[in-house]
Design a protein that fits this description.
The complex is a heterodimer of chains A (about 150) and B (about 375). Chain A has about 150 residues and is α+β, with helices and mostly antiparallel strands. Chain A contains 5 helices and 7 strands. Chain A has a domain of about 90 residues: Alpha-Beta Plaits (2-Layer Sandwich). Chain A starts with 8 loop residues before the first helix and ends in a 7-residue tail after the last helix. Chain B has a domain of about 260 residues. Chains A and B meet through helix 2 of A and helix 1 of B.
Chain lengths: ~150, ~375
């Protein structure tokens, strides 16, 4: 890198440069606006396309999913585990639908692959858990409607 | 030593130690908040009002942490090192006068722990003791990074101690005394007695008669206290944490405290030697106005608590209180300068540090002595 060193005695004399620096820090301290977001009270607004915690869209209390297995196939992290079953009216449905949040990389491929508009990624980003097994969301937890998508 | 002197000494030592220990958590808070604001952050603001109790919470954390001595360390020196770092920081303050004289029960009390007639040399000798603790810490840790940190520290201290001592020679030449009380007293003389108007009231502070010496001393003091831009002994980007790498819990906190105590002492020295100590032009006028208030407060106190006698000399007390306040304000400014400079300047490279110490400050301080000598001979200062 080509460094453009300043010429002249005053510029080489470190003391004046220090004073300039002190002026800058003081100006920042007194007049600049703090950029901190006071997290639990203040929230950053994310875009609608933000990919956060999953949910399965349901219509009239019945999940849209038909256990077609496209999402576990496309999933690069292999975090979706589906066991398919059959309803009395011969419709295929997921008996078990689990997403391992700890493995998920939030790529959103499942959302794109889904032909029934069932699996969705909400904009919830607080997913910390105290125990590893709490990081696996079952069907009941995924059926909570976490967004309007 | 009679009874009165004993109590007087105990009270003064107790006061100094108490105040210095209280300043440390405040200073940590100021540093954290100040640095945060300079970087457009907010800093600790959750514990207590404005985050003031953050330091308290930290102390509680440090005390309850497991106190462990790593297996590969030299136990004796490992345990001794934090104390050796901490003690000189307290000891240097002993010779700093923080106020004028007060007469209590017929005894003249100096507001200074030890009125040494070689106070000046005492500062230089005790001030350089702190490095022993740092070397002990680094060596006993049995860790390459710690040892590197303490080696850097010793090299830095030796380089800057020289120019620091030489820069102070100018002060001794001008005020012709080794006693800090005397130096403070002589700084109250007018700088230009024959100057017209307000200019005649400018005091003969060390800063005005020794500007170059002041800059050298200021920079050297930063190097001595291991603060940025000279904090190479702990340069975290190169040698992890330097000399206190192997230390944890309260032992680490002691190193941390020592750094801040050194800052307090260094600020007090800067104030005493270069900014007139506890004196301030026009202080006696303010003290006269303040006297009735002190007398009234003393009367109220003794009417409420009969065992407290009323002050026999409220004028002296008023002056002493103002002097301590002025001293605290000046020290406070320099402490703030420490924080301010730390969050403004980046760390020096090691060769730059050595260059500055040996090739710039040392010749400059010797030249300063020569020029001061010539000016004194010519009768200018």
């Amino acid at each position: 890198m080509l460094v453009n060193n300043k010429k002249g005695f005053l510029n080489k004399f470190y003391l004046f440069e220090i004073l300039t620096g002190l002026k800058i820090t003081m100006r920042n301290m007194l007049f600049a606006k703090n950029v901190t977001i006071q997290y639990p009270e203040e929230r950053r607004t994310y875009s609608d396309r933000y990919r956060g915690l999953h949910y399965i869209k349901s219509v009239n209390g019945v999940e849209n999913c038909t256990a077609c297995m496209l999402c576990p196939t496309v999933c690069p992290a292999e975090c979706i585990h589906i066991v398919a079953g059959e309803r009395p009216d011969k419709e295929k449905y997921p008996v078990k639908f689990e997403i391992d949040i700890l493995r998920c990389c939030y790529c959103g491929f499942c959302e794109e692959a889904c032909p029934k508009d069932a699996i969705k990624l909400s904009n919830i980003y607080e997913m910390a858990v105290s125990y590893r097994d709490k990081g696996v969301y079952d069907k009941e937890a995924l059926l909570v409607q976490r967004g309007t998508k | 030593m009679d009874m009165f002197t004993g109590i007087e000494m105990a009270a003064k030592v107790g006061l100094i130690v108490f105040v210095m220990l209280q300043v440390v958590p405040m200073m940590v808070w100021i540093e954290r908040r100040g640095s945060a604001l300079m970087q457009n952050r907010r800093g600790p603001n959750r514990v207590g009002p404005l985050g003031l109790f953050q330091s308290l919470a930290d102390v509680v954390k440090f005390i309850f942490k497991e106190d462990m001595v790593p297996e590969h360390c030299d136990k004796f020196y490992y345990i001794l090192a934090p104390a050796v770092v901490l003690l000189p920081a307290f000891m240097t303050f002993a010779v700093v006068p923080f106020g004028g004289d007060i007469t209590i029960a017929g005894h003249v009390v100096h507001l200074q722990v030890a009125d040494l007639n070689v106070g000046f040399l005492y500062i230089l000798s005790i001030g350089s003791l702190g490095v022993y603790g740092i070397i002990m810490a680094g060596w006993s840790s049995n860790n390459k990074y710690s040892l590197l940190g303490s080696l850097r520290s010793s090299a830095q201290m030796i380089s800057y101690e020289l120019s620091m001592g030489l820069s102070l020679v100018g002060i001794v030449m001008i005020y012709s005394s080794f006693e800090l009380r005397e130096i403070v007293f002589r700084q109250t003389y007018p700088l230009m007695a024959s100057a017209p108007g307000i200019l005649a009231h400018i005091p003969k502070w060390g800063f005005f008669v020794q500007p170059v010496g002041f800059i050298i001393f200021l920079s050297s003091v930063y190097a001595e206290t291991n603060r940025l831009p000279f904090d190479l002994p702990e340069g975290e980007s190169e040698i992890v944490a330097g000399y206190h790498l192997e230390f944890g819990s309260m032992r680490f906190a002691l190193f941390f405290m020592a750094e801040y105590l050194n800052m307090v002492t260094a600020s007090a020295l800067l104030t005493t030697l270069y900014f007139g100590g506890y004196s301030f032009p026009g202080l006696h006028i303010a003290a006269e106005a303040f006297t009735p208030l002190v007398a009234r407060a003393s009367e109220i106190a003794s009417s409420l608590m009969p065992f407290v006698p009323t002050l026999a000399n409220p004028d002296q007390w008023a002056r002493a209180i103002l002097e301590v306040a002025v001293f605290s304000a000046k020290v406070g400014f320099f402490m703030w300068l420490f924080v301010w400079v730390r969050w403004t300047l980046p760390r020096f490279r090691y060769d730059q540090l050595m260059d500055l110490g040996w090739k710039v400050f040392l010749p400059l301080s010797i030249a300063n002595i020569a020029v001061t000598g010539v000016l004194i001979y010519l009768g200018v200062i």
